[in-house]
Amino acid sequence: MRTPATDSGRSRAQDLPGPPVSTLAPADRPLPKPGSSFALRNWRVRTRLIALIAIPTIVGVLLGALRVGTSIGSAQQYAQVGEVNTLMSSVGELAHNLAVERDRAARYVASNRRQGELQPLTTQQDIVDASAKRLLGISGSAQGLLSDLGQRRLELTRFRLGQLPTMRKTIQGSQLPPLPTIEKYSEVISDLLQLFDEVGQGAADEQITSTSTAMRAVARAEEETSKQRALLSAALLKNEFTGPEFNAFVDARARRESERATFRSAATPAQRQHFDNTVTSVEVGRAEFYANRAIFLHNAGTALQRLDTTTTKDVDKWYDSITRTVDKQNEVQKALSQQIATRSADLQGADRQAAAFSIGLVILLLALVLVVTAVMARSLVRPLRRLRGDALKVAGKTLPGLVRQLREGEADPESLHVPPIQISSKDEIGEVARAFDEVHREAVRLAGEESRLR
């Protein structure tokens, strides 16, 4: 039997707000399948956050590793330049001493193998043997640093040095003329000087490259000056040049000037100034005067004597004067070699510092990413866990208890309320928490309305 109260309650129940019909799913409509656990939507928040940060972090680490690798490779390259330069210092020393032996041998041969010229030659041979021993001692460890052509040249140099004793016996025990004697020594020295092409190979630094070119030019200029010493010494002992000897003397002067021009084009202003300040003295000027005087006398068809009217010891005066020029050029060569060693060591140290800095920066980046990831994950995961726990608590315990109290009439609907979820942030998680609170309040209100209707 219907009562007015029942009809009125039904009328009010029908007027209660509710979701649109179109938004209500059938009770038997299944939930969408969650899909694979590897699907992005099934990833945990922490995993997504780590993946989000891991990609740029990995890119940063790879770029840092590339920078570290480049710096370490560059440091190793400059270390190799320094080691090759050390080898070339021994090569330059041997070439210088061997040139002195050649010039002494030329004097010995031109003097008809006079015993007075033999003792200086023998002494110089001992000096050359010591230099060759030092070179061979370090060439084994440095050979792998040379190019293929450089390694072949070094092998040829070893072969040439092994022939030195035989060549010396031939010079002392035969009637070999001065010019062939000079040429035999010059072949060995030429092979040595070709090794200078290995200095600065592969170096990206322009200063090392230009200084290496300048050093090679000075070494070759020194060799051409030394050839002049041998040729004119032999000619003075005979009081004349033969045609081939004079041509060789003039060619040596021309090549020396060409190498000096190469040096000036490659050297820095400071290096050129150092050369001008070093290769200058009274003896250097006197040697140039003697060379010009010898050319003049030969062209005039006059015997090569009295190059200097103040003395009759033309051979000794010429030899001592031109030796001063050779030694000065060798001093410049050593200074340039030292500059290459210093520059390569500085660049090697700078690259190692850059590599260490890059490694430290990468480690700092990784540590910072780990800290940031941990903090951000904690700031996201903890509120989500609280939201989940509080929502389940309200849905599974608090809300059913309130509904039960309302149904049994144990409480006044106006006095009941659902405690809010304990999340006070203003981000999306806080907004979801407030939405849950609103849903819970609406559920209590609807339960109260239902209770009043009953």
N- to C-terminal distance = 16 Å
Q: Overall 3D geometry?
A: rod-shaped
User: Order of helices and strands, N to C?
Assistant: HHHHHHHHHHHH
**Strand-pairing-aware structural class:** mainly alpha
Q: How many strand segments?
A: 0
Distinct helical segment count: 12
Instruction: Provide the β-strand percentage band.
Output: under 5%
Largest sheet: none
Fraction of residues in helix: over 70%
Rounded mean pLDDT score: 82
Based on CA atoms alone, the radius of gyration comes out at: 48 Å
Question: Could you list the spans in which at least 5 consecutive residues all have pLDDT below 50?
Answer: 1-27
Strand and helix map with partners:
Elements: H1 4-15, H2 45-110, H3 115-142, H4 148-162, H5 164-173, H6 178-194, H7 206-238, H8 243-266, H9 269-278, H10 282-299, H11 314-407, H12 428-453
Helix pairs in contact: 2-3, 2-6, 2-7, 2-11, 4-6, 6-7, 7-8, 7-11, 9-11, 10-11, 11-12
Provide structural commentary.
- The chain is mainly alpha-helical and 454 residues long.
- The chain is 78% helix and 0% strand.
- The protein has 12 helices and no strands.
- The protein has helices at residues 4-15, 45-110, 115-142, 148-162, 164-173, 178-194, 206-238, 243-266, 269-278, 282-299, 314-407, 428-453.
- The two termini are 16 Å apart.
- This is histidine kinase.
- Its EC number is 2.7.13.3.
- It catalyses: ATP + protein L-histidine = ADP + protein N-phospho-L-histidine.
